Amino acid sequence: MLQLSLWSLPSLLTAAVLLAVLWKLRGADAVPGIYALRGLVVAAALWALAESLETMLRPMDSRVLMAKLRMVLVCLVPLAWFAFALTYSQQRVRANRLALNLAAIVPLATVLITFSNEAHGLLWAQMSLIDVGGYLGMTVEHGAWFPVHVVYSSALVLIATTILAFALSQSAESSTPIIAVIAAPLCGAGATAFALSPLNPFPWFDYSTVGLALASVILYTGVLRYGLLNRSRIRRDRVLEALHDGVLVARSSGELLDGNAAALRIFGLERSALAQQNINELVPSLPLLRINERSRSIVEITRGTHAFEVRASMLDPHGPASDVALVFRDVTRRRVDDQQRRETQKELETLALTDALTKLHNRRVFMSRLTEEIGRVQRHGATLSVLLFDLDHFKAVNDRYGHDTGDEVLKTVARCLEQVKRVTDVAARLGGEEFALLLPETGQPGALQLAQRLREKIASSETMTSSGLPLTVTASIGVATVNRNSRQIDDLLQHADGALYAAKDSGRNRVCIANTV
User: Fold this and answer.
1) Is the pLDDT at 18 greater than 90, yes or no?
2) How many CB atoms neighbour CB 354 within 10 A?
3) 339 neighbors 361 (Cβ within 8 angstroms)
4) Which of 82, 247, 335, 511 could disulfide-pair with 160, CB 3.0 to 4.6 Å?
């Protein structure tokens, strides 16, 4: 049943070499095309094992079965090589399914023809055994479909090798991996061509397994050891494509050379149209030509509703016309957050300095400005007046009409105060119904005149109650004025407060002046 001979050793050694390569590929799950490459190695190893079993078996039917199984694996090897090249070049975990489906049509037809060969003889027209010194070898006469299979498989390998070599040429630091990728399939194809040629002195022996062994050694020594499947090297390109930041590469004159998926989305471009674009037309505000070896340009641009921070740097700082890498980072959310933060800060500052109801300055601001103006009087001999007033019988307004109406009255008084005061004056609500007006560079006559105008303005202003009836209030005002010669300048507010109480005691709705001389 079995025959042992030296003719089985080449295929066994080939299987061993391929299994060793498969072991080297462990732990590389993140590499694009790794599944296809593993599939190729497994198919080639099984191909070699099937070839070895075929040489060991003596019955014709057993050999034919092994030949059919070997043919299935022969169809899988070029297809797996094509899948690996396609996936690796596109830097995806899996290959394009449509391309693979189309590429698999002829191999699938070959498999179907293989297992139905007895009915038509399209693959093998005749198979026979010959005795070579006690060894039974099998020879075949190929049918009409076999050349189709050979030509198609060779074309598939050629296309895949071209794709892979081009992909490597874009990133490989050494030419060795490129040469190895080209040489490996050439060894396999050369061994197969020699086995099928009239020059083959042993027509019962398939040299393809020898070619597989040489190809696997070349791939390992010339490709794997040079880092073709090194995770960090491959992930560099994959990370670039996965970045949320847009990346464009342009010449110093502005013509675009390359871009990642994010950049294409930002500018609404197709990759095929990238070479026809100029960065200076896409982003007129980008100072591309100002970049030099001593600086990195950082500008901000707007595209639609999005804001982008653009960083540009030379790829060759010492080159007179270096290509430029441009990174577009979407800072829209940050800009919105910054704007909201500024608005919130401004609002908080306003709340800290402003009376929430009347929108006048609050007591804190007024006291600070009062201290500043008193210091100015003491240093430079200026004149300063203060009006301090509150509303007459305001508690009765709240009790009779409610606090909502009381608040509206306070707002009306605030408007009167804003209408009467000058630009340089400081109006404030000190609390409750008490208000103050700081009058820099204003003497007693001017302060008295303004106080009378304010009192009349308040008395003539109406506020509508909740029932729709007009309501008027009056105010009692105390005025105090100081200059450098005045006694107790720091007590200016107390003097004004004393004058206010004098106005109330004398009948309300009037103005009284404090004696500060």
Assistant:
1) no
2) 18
3) no
4) 82
First-last CA distance in the chain: 136
**Total Cβ atoms within 10 A of residue 516:** 23
Ramachandran angles phi, psi of 141, nearest 5°: -110, 120
Single-letter code of the amino acid located at 11 = S
Q: Which is catalytic among the residues 433, 434, 456, 462? A: 433
Rounded Cα–Cα distance for residues 480 and 74 (Å): 110
Per-residue pLDDT of 122-149, as tens digits, reads: 998 888 888 887 788 888 888 999 999 9
Residues in the chain: 517
| Contact indicator for 64, 127 with CB cutoff of 8 Å | yes
Catalytic status, residue 241: no
How many Å apart are CA 73 and CA 49, to the nearest integer? 11
Establish how many alpha carbons lie within 13 A of residue 347's alpha carbon, considering only the half-sphere containing its beta carbon: 6
Instruction: Return the H-helix or E-strand segment holding 40.
Output: helix 34-56
**Pick from 350, 409, 495: which is nearest to 417 by CA?**
409
Q: Are 439 and 450 in contact (CB under 8 A)?
A: yes
Q: What are phi and psi of 390, to 5 degrees?
A: -140, 170
Task: Give me the amino acid identity at 165.
Answer: A
Cα 141 from Cα 384, distance rounded (Å): 122
pTM value is 0.50
Write the DSSP assignment of 194-228 as a string of letters: HHHSTT-S-TTS-THHHHHHHHHHHHHHHTGGGTT
CA–CA gap between residue 107 and residue 134 (Å, rounded): 36
